[in-house]
Design brief:
The complex is a heterotetramer, with 2 copies of chain A (253 residues) and 2 copies of chain C (311 residues).
Chain A lengths: L2 H24 L8 H29 L5 H7 L9 H4 L5 H22 L5 H29 L3 H14 L11 H8 L10 H14 L22 H10 L1 H5 L6
Helix pairs in contact in A: 1-2, 1-8, 2-3, 2-6, 5-6, 5-7, 5-9
Chain C lengths: L1 H11 L12 H20 L1 H8 L5 H26 L5 H9 L17 H18 L8 H29 L3 H20 L11 H6 L7 H19 L9 E3 L4 E3 L5 H11 L3 H14 L1 H21 L1
Antiparallel strand pairs in C: 1-2
The chains are: A mainly alpha (253), C mainly alpha (311).
Amino acid sequence: MDQQTATFEFLCRMGDNTLVLGHRVSEWCGKAPVLEEDIALANVALDLIGQTQMWLGLAAEVEGAGRTADDLAMLRDVWDFRSALLVEQPNGDFGQTLMRQYLFDQWHVAVLTALMESADPRVADIAAKSVKEARYHVERSADLVIRLGDGTEESHGRMQAALDKLWPFFGELFDDDPVDAAMAEAGIAPLPSGLRADVDQEVAAVMAQATLVIPADRFAHRGGKTGIRHSEHLGHMLTQMQWLQRAYPGATW
Amino acid sequence: MDQQTATFEFLCRMGDNTLVLGHRVSEWCGKAPVLEEDIALANVALDLIGQTQMWLGLAAEVEGAGRTADDLAMLRDVWDFRSALLVEQPNGDFGQTLMRQYLFDQWHVAVLTALMESADPRVADIAAKSVKEARYHVERSADLVIRLGDGTEESHGRMQAALDKLWPFFGELFDDDPVDAAMAEAGIAPLPSGLRADVDQEVAAVMAQATLVIPADRFAHRGGKTGIRHSEHLGHMLTQMQWLQRAYPGATW
Amino acid sequence: PAKLAAFQARIDAGEKVEPKDWMPEGYRKTLIRQIGQHAHSEIVGQLPEGNWITRAPTLERKAILLAKVQDEAGHGLYLYGAAETLGVSRDEMTEMLLDGRMKYSSIFNYPTLTWADMGAVGWLVDGAAIMNQVPLQRTSFGPYARAMVRICKEESFHQRQGFDIMMKMAGGTPAQRRMAQNALDRFWFPALMMFGPSDKDSVHSAQSMAWKIKMNTNDELRQKFVDQTVPQAEYLGLTVPDDTLAWNEAKGGYDFAEPDWAEFFDVLKGNGPCNVDRLEARNKAWDDGAWVRDALMAHAEKHANREVAAE
Amino acid sequence: PAKLAAFQARIDAGEKVEPKDWMPEGYRKTLIRQIGQHAHSEIVGQLPEGNWITRAPTLERKAILLAKVQDEAGHGLYLYGAAETLGVSRDEMTEMLLDGRMKYSSIFNYPTLTWADMGAVGWLVDGAAIMNQVPLQRTSFGPYARAMVRICKEESFHQRQGFDIMMKMAGGTPAQRRMAQNALDRFWFPALMMFGPSDKDSVHSAQSMAWKIKMNTNDELRQKFVDQTVPQAEYLGLTVPDDTLAWNEAKGGYDFAEPDWAEFFDVLKGNGPCNVDRLEARNKAWDDGAWVRDALMAHAEKHANREVAAE
């Protein structure tokens, strides 16, 4: 794999994660448990969509094929997406949405922090802009995981169920593959596996406060970030997300 | 409105009703309360899709613009659909699905029976083929409405709620408008309003057996069969239904 | 009665009434109804636009729409806050919305069916809302007037964004143009209804105007809206769906057709195209969220107890 | 032991065992497990294809797919019926499926991600299933053998339909061609797994073969499947995702790579891509449908009582 292809893949991974998670979070619009959460969820979605514009914009630039960030978002089919399986998972109840968010945020801060040192200044720049938002996100999602985990019996049960369900999708974020190896070698991005120990420590601390038990099984589903085998959920999301662009090709909006 | 336009509109109404309801019913695939219902629902959906092919096929022929039944089904946006609001309503629980089906079936048998006498032999022919299926459908849906209405306290409550919810969408099926007037004048189709008395009698008999109370309010929502104002639900359905044709224009399947 | 006269004198003098000031029970009740209804409208108003967030055509449009809906939730917060100063809690008001005792603006009972509706809602619905709200910045109740100042600023931003969508659509492909016209066709009369029936038919108007809770008559505002909007439609190359529309030199404004008030009262009664869907959606959100609200409260209590115990 | 020997003799003579005949407990248990698992596979197997019914590209394709999934439900009915003759009810078996005590074919734990998967499932998955099922038409247990006769006829029809989709895709636009190859890439090894691990690693095989519950070894069937399928892939112009694939003149069949058996056991343990989703979907259907089943029963009882009372 040449450097350009690897960089394009890497940038799509970053941008597709924020795109897909941003979309999922935006599905909550008007349906949150309290008004403050409606606002907070919209805020997270907004940040993620903004980051998507930067990552996919750079991806399109690196590709050099005349595509735009919107083209990448709106005109690729499911197999060309590089989002991790975690972010594709459906919202479920508010607890599941939050747990997904927390696990993502904790990884996200770690990777963005490392990317601020990227040898590619464009990557470093996007990371620097994004990391502030991500830090705020993880602060909020960790806090809520703790409060709901250590809330009522029902909320505890729901949060533990959410953790159990989502845990098998966490490992993929730390998988290394040839794209990651190429990025690491070029100094553009860290090896994902190298982030795990620190992130695990953070997660352990939060779950302890939340009185939640991290599953012992380290089994991890794979296939999202490589695009080899997404979940069935992603395709359904794309039918919505891409509808207008597909139905009215060539229009300006 | 010239005769050709009116006929095209009328045929789209017939075909869009079966298309949209067939789609809704097909959403149940693999999720019915008992295996026999999985089979029965698939059967109803199949019949409706088959009827759609005939109605929209004839509509395309009448239009004479080189479109096919598939083009009409897969490439019109929501405003060009002529389905009644009733069939666009979401499945809800099994009771709501069944109640929607029963109300539709009872109207459907009446209109198809009348259409067997159509001055247009192509219309009479489709009606003759469809009415056998529709009679079977109404037999089944009426029977289930009765059994669930007069079942447990819970089932009774659910069926009454379904009737209350769907009743305001029933009246639209019997609305007359200029298209209907043109069809009636040409002897192609009966005036919808003329079907109501008989259908009401049937519905009253079934609901009595089902121990369900028909709402007194005759208010009826409008806007589906004219296409003026569909429900928000239809657009979401189309994102799925039309996805592949929109995403891969010009492909053969 | 002396108190009443003094109160009216303060209002006539342009003073602001503040929450701890004495006020007539009718003033309080009318305000609670009006501010509450306004707050509920912001909340329910998230739904028709939320309906298109997942289908926005570009990342930028998605972001703009998200930000707009977020603003609406924010407006809801300000307004509930203003109403709370009158002695009614947000949860109480929410319960009244959910069981139908309190209303929200009927406009949100109309469906959003195409992307052009996002333009039409911004242009016409926010346009009409601003027309209603700008004068309320001078309303007699302090917290309400101050909330309105913040809200109006954002609403006029939203209106411009809506108009921008309409411009893109009206100047786009034939299909987009058709979409834009279709949206105007569906939203024109419902937008006119937003000002309420003619004041001659309105019960509470005179008292509300004396109290400066209501600043203009419904008909004045409707006329102003039409006069402002018709040239915009012309600019867009779209046709207002009213054959009787004509410039009246004598009155210096347009003559126009009244909306179908029977439809208005039908929608108010609960028979709008989306009344059931909207209330179902809000009720579901509230019911599904109960465990979260309970848990947050339980956690806060535990936490407080632990701190006390640790002292 | 005399009974056992007589039983074995009947089987060896090619006689059919019928439900009321004496049979060893192990025979009954093995059959219940096998037929039940097969029935469950038909039921769960509705889901991956059901996933595309709402997105089928043409009315005809939608109808064909619906009919196919309907057939699967029908197969489920026959098979539950056959199992019930062994003294276990459909509801009991369903409960065992839902709480994980009974399995279904692991292949249905793989997702269907593009329309080409509808082709690949028909071509490869139904193809492998038929390979397994055709010999079972001669199985020793009468009701099972008879169910298999009906099922095999429909399955081979399904397989042809799947191949027809693949032909359309492989001969279509570049994107369709890519979709077809992608589907083959994802389904090839899971299809090979459908025959189970090599018989040397399989515990129950010898006894099952003696009882004619199992008619061929897993490896025999897998070889047969590969030999049949590779030329079809070539005909389609698609590449089987196995670099080691080569014709072996000596054995008169292909040499091919083993699937990743670690993955197979992972999926069996519940760690397949869709195990959780599939069981959730089935559990939800069952739970959501409880009130319907209860009501139908209650109605039947009332009705029966009324008839008695009326006599």
